[in-house]
Amino acid sequence: MSTPRSKRAHNASAAPQCRTRLQQRMTDATSARQRHDVALAFGALVRELRTAQGLTQEGLAEKGGFHRTYPSLLERGLRTPTLSVLFRLADTLGVSAPALVQSTLVQLQSDAEPAAAAAAAAPG
Question: What is the pLDDT of the chain when averaged over all its residues?
């Protein structure tokens, strides 16, 4: 028993769509991973600046007018700040908002360098 011609044509055209959906999922996963990496790098910076000032997470929250759990969520990479919160957070930590962003970028680049070096040195 053979497959009707119209069904075969449909199955043939579905293959590129499946690949496209798979590629989109892979791109989405990569984007999600990149966003998570940025959130973790930003959180590490917030933790570093907070502890350098001798502030607890609750102290930072009180000083900045944030919910008491928000600094913890930032530091663990579970939240990313809005632009207005970024400015308020920078002010609370005694740094500029551009310095927070630039330091996050530097952290991301330093994290990426060992991974790139390891990938380049891997046999294959």
Answer: 84
